Amino acid sequence: MKQSGRKVIITCAVTGAIHTPTMSDALPYKAEDIARQAIAAAEAGAAILHLHARNPVNGAVSIDPEHFMGFLPQIKDATDAVINLSTGGSLTNTVAERIAPAKRVSPEMTSLNMGSMNFSMHPLASKYQSWRFDWEHDYLANSDSYIFRNTFRDIAMVARELGEEENVKFEHECYDIGHLYNLKFCIDTGMFKPPVFIQFVLGILGGIGADLENLVFMKRTADKLFGDSYRWSVLGAGASQMDLATAAATLGGNVRVGLEDSLFISRGQLAESNAQQVTKIRRMLNEHGLEAASPAEAREMLGLKGRANTKF
Ligand code: KMH
Ligand code: ZN
């Protein structure tokens, strides 16, 4: 495919469930701050907003539909961006509980995690001496004992209740090579219709490491399994975020940035906002002769149902 002038979808993952308020003043957790940062990220060039909710009082991760409703209508009113709700925002709830917000609002997209795995942030627990909120330390420290559960039966339920019933398109989050084979099995058994949209996730403790060789390995495996009937994007966790996003774009893929995945704008320097990261990756794309896709272009590229068909 001709690279020059190619449109690249920028996804911005605004707050997530990994980082905690002590780590950065920029990490939004109040509904109005999530909305403000999401809108600014869209204005900076993000076509897709990947959204988690937080408890607005103490910043704890939340899958309460009411907390999502604290910011979704505002974002929809102020931007044309595609709204993508997380279905992975808790390591302790069932998948049925995790998809409740998306069932309520029927967004154009949701995440769908393609395998069960260790998903641990426990090394972060020893990096800070004091904490803004009392939940933060134990949340991080105890993540060494959690299994992020996404069995085939769970995946089939999400495919049925969100894919079939709500016509939601998935951001298939694949954290390792085996997850690509899981996705292939699910496509072959009729759960998802290609072209699928795959998010290669590199650098999570429990998944594949964040380096270029692994990115190429993921891409080559996906090429082998899916031919040209898939679209892809890359999320590099932590310090690898910008380097892997830039590499992905030059290899023909799309990119994801945002404070969910990295709190930094460059090595050792905290980002001021999600929009700052979007602006940076957009500049890198432009330097390589690539352009940020608009929300309308992203809808066309991914075959989305359109914002008029959401329920919020
Ligand atoms: N924070 C990412 C590594 C989800 O929301 O479903 C994983 C993620 C999961 O985005
Ligand atoms: Zn997420």
Q: What gyration radius follows from the Cα positions, in whole Å?
A: 18 Å
What multimeric state do the chains show? single chain
Task: Please tell me the total number of domains.
Answer: 1
Largest sheet: 8 strands, parallel, barrel
Structural class: alpha/beta
Low-confidence stretches: none
Distance between the termini: 37 Å
- CATH homologous superfamily designation: Aldolase class I
Average pLDDT value?
A: 97
Helix proportion range: 25-40%
Counted by DSSP, the helix tally is: 12
User: Care to count the β-strands?
Assistant: 16
Instruction: Provide the CATH architecture.
Output: Alpha-Beta Barrel
Element-level helix/strand string:
EEHEEEHHEHHEEHEHEHEHEHEEEHEH
Ligand identities: (5S)-5-amino-3-OXO-hexanoic acid, zinc ion
Write the layout of secondary structure elements.
Layout: E1 7-8, E2 10-13, H1 31-44, E3 48-51, E4 53-54, E5 61-62, H2 65-69, H3 72-78, E6 82-85, H4 95-98, H5 100-105, E7 109-113, E8 117-118, H6 136-141, E9 147-148, H7 152-166, E10 169-174, H8 177-188, E11 196-202, H9 212-226, E12 230-236, H10 241-250, E13 254-257, E14 264-266, E15 269-270, H11 274-287, E16 291-292, H12 295-302
Parallel strand pairs: 1-16, 2-3, 2-13, 3-6, 6-7, 7-10, 10-11, 11-12, 12-13
Antiparallel strand pairs: 4-5, 8-9, 14-15
Helix pairs in contact: 1-3, 1-11, 8-9, 10-11
